[in-house]
Amino acid sequence: MKWTTFSIFCIFYLALMLFAERRPAPALHQFSAAYDLSNEMTVLHAPAEAQDNGWTAAQIPPQRLVSPLVRLEADADLQVSLQEIVRYEKEHGKIPPGALIVGRRFPSEL
């Protein structure tokens, strides 16, 4: 009798796993955008401004507000080339995930 109960449970469990509704993983609170930091006033745009379930400015953990800074040389349009990224990684190592990357114009263009 115990084997019958165990077998029914296994079949039910297998059917449940095969036909259960697959839900996507919950969205992480991620927000990324490009900002011009050259003016004297920097504004924090919290994820709640773009997403209904996003963090407000008070809910953002402090460790999410600090990241490595990478400064790359850019052309007149502030476009960073692939060659510049390769040059930077050869000199300084791989760009860490989550790094804040800023472009700086070549000294001759300032």
Brief summary:
This protein is an alpha+beta fold and 110 residues long.
Count the helices. How many? 2
Q: In percent, how much strand structure appears in the residues?
A: 5-15%
Give average pLDDT, whole number. 76
Span from first to last CA? 85 Å
Computed structural class: alpha+beta
- The run of helices and strands is HEHE
Radius of gyration: 25 Å
Helix content: 25-40%
Could you name the ranges where pLDDT drops below 50 across 5 or more consecutive residues?
none
Assembly classification: single chain
Instruction: Write down the overall geometry.
Output: elongated
Q: Characterize the largest beta sheet: strand count, sense, and whether it forms a barrel.
A: 2 strands, parallel
**What is the number of E strands?**
2
Lateral arrangement of strands in the main beta sheet: 1-2
